[in-house]
Specification:
6 helices; 129 residues; globular; mainly alpha; 0% strand
């Protein structure tokens, strides 16, 4: 399981470093967007530079995963990113949840399972006084 978690951590790190960096300094070609909600949403993200913020919060945890430091922190930040990615593809893009987001969620779960003891305090029930 340790090897699977390590491979998952590295793959997820590579995915978020590439796509996070692409949001900050675009280098991957983007297909033209059809008019509608998705084009409006992507245009708003770009014109307000909010995409750069999203890219930052993908790039930094991706680097942390690649260097194997602060992995629980990286997973916590990326959990919020994954919720947004899944929401975007399910609600805005309407193209369904194509394989990449689902594969990244599976990779996240595999890495989380390896470091789950780090989340023991967060997942523990609170005591009622």
């Amino acid at each position: 399981m340790k090897i699977v978690a390590t491979i998952s951590r590295v793959l997820m790190g590579v995915v978020f470093v590439i796509f996070g960096a692409n949001l900050i300094v675009p280098f991957l070609p983007n297909p033209p967007l059809a008019p509608g909600a998705m084009k409006d949403f992507v245009t708003a993200l770009g014109s307000t530079h909010y995409a750069m913020v999203v890219g930052f919060f993908q790039l930094v945890p991706g680097i942390l995963l690649l260097i194997n430091r602060y992995v629980p922190l990286a997973l916590t930040v990326l959990a919020a990113e994954l919720v947004n990615i899944l929401s975007f593809h399910g609600l805005v893009a309407r193209s369904g949840l194509f394989p990449v987001p689902i594969v990244v969620v599976i990779l996240w779960i595999l890495v989380f399972w390896r470091v789950r003891s780090s989340f023991a305090g967060i997942l523990a029930p609170t005591k009622q006084e």
